Amino acid sequence: QVQLVESGGGLVQPGGSLRLSCALTGRTSTNYYGMGWFRLFPGKEREFVVSISANGRMTDYTNSVKGRFTISRDNAGNTVYLQMNSLTPEDTAVYYCAAAATTYSENTYRVRSRYNYWGQGTQVTVSS
Hints:
The structure is a single chain. About 0% of the residues lie in helices and about 50% in strands. It has no helices and 11 strands. Strands 2, 4, 5, 6, 9, 10 and 11 form a 7-stranded mixed sheet that branches. The chain is globular, with a radius of gyration of 14 Å.
């Protein structure tokens, strides 16, 4: 059974940085997963932030985080990182990691329904 465990959230001042991690467990060597990060603001639907393909070669960012956030994954493909720089109060949200069963070279996805597994979420608060 695939499970996702996020870590790295917390409180940071505006302009600061945080690094989120998402560990994927239960994966077999023949299964591949594109990974994504979504975030949830109070009273709104979960929105797409960034995604990375199973082979790590393709990424996609929502406009509001381009140039500030960077997604990456380790060589084994089992851990995904989200480096968040120049954080603003508008980035305050619960961040969720998600995994979509794909082929190794398949493109990434923004649509929530494409993702098969979700983490429990980690709170990111940007405040002075």
